[in-house]
UniProtKB/TrEMBL annotation:
Protein localization: Membrane
Membrane topology of this protein: Multi-pass membrane protein
Lineage, uppermost ranks: Eukaryota, Fungi, Dikarya, Ascomycota, Pezizomycotina
GO molecular function, one term: chloride channel activity
Pfam hit, one: Bestrophin_2
Keyword Transmembrane: yes
This protein's UniProt keywords: Ion transport, Membrane, Transmembrane, Transmembrane helix, Transport
Name of the molecule in the record: Uncharacterized protein
InterPro entries for this protein: YneE/VCCN1/2-like
GO CC field: membrane
Amino acid sequence: MTTARHHTVDPTFPRYYSTRTKARRWPLVLRFVKGAIHANIATAVLLHAIFAALVCYLDMRKAGHLAIPSSVVPSLSIVVGLLLVFRNSTSYDRFWRGCNHVNTIETSVRNLTRSFLACSCKSDGPPPSTAEQADTERTVRILLAMMYATKHHLRGEWGASRMPVVEHRRASLALAKSEYDDILPSGTEDFQDQGLGLLLQLTIPIEAYIKRGHDRAWFHAPQASQLSVQLNTLVAAYGSLETIHLTPLPVAYLIHLRQVLALFCCALPFALVAEMRWWSVLLTAFLAFTLYGVEGIGAQLEDPFGYGRSEIKLDAVCEDLRVEMGVLLREWRAGGNMFPEGGVVR
């Protein structure tokens, strides 16, 4: 058994929020609450154990006439195994693709931020004005807001739950202690109550900034085109995440899988009772725990954008990106060595 690594971290450690910062107190084999699936399958396991006990009791009363040949178990287990393999492989593929698309959005935000900060001036012209500096910084903060908008959209956190709307239809996003407080311009209007996602809304000022940068001769035409491609890539990844979130596995398959699991675990006591007697209750509970646990993990990974420990760490990704953007903006404003030609007035 491998031991967990101990990390000595500083609050500015890269990927600080996404990195495990403390060793596990207990081996994973002894974990039954945090991160485990046990609570979700406890009812099913308990019911099958009770049913197995009932079969054992009735078999004793009927002098062993409830038993069926144990040879039926291997043939049924093949079918159950194939269904579970398909279920979990499909669910993990959705989880993995979700991770990749989130990373694509994060990468696009990083690339656009780098270009906006490094190129927000003319190398052979006057330094940018105070208004142009403010325009650049505001745009970079909007880029960061797009990562948060992705997180909240995938979790369905809009409207009254996360972003309370004022009585008029185009509500301001001035929210008390909101994640958007210091990254969105004051007076930004929210169109989510009309069906427009916040991320798509925020792509408009980003595209407009690219056009202004081209007009100011900050970006030459091929570079401006490439920046637009980066923005298009970000929106495409956002759409792919929406597809994963809004397209669950077919309900007919899920119904059939649950029914097959239930029938298999109900047939087990009849096949085991002749040889194992009351021990068949324990074995049935163990097998039900195994099979329903595997299915439960697949259900958890199917839409991996929530708060569970087995889901994508969207909160950590957003906070790490906020730290990175904060350092870049601070160095850009200070005209440090990171930006030798700078984007600030000296």
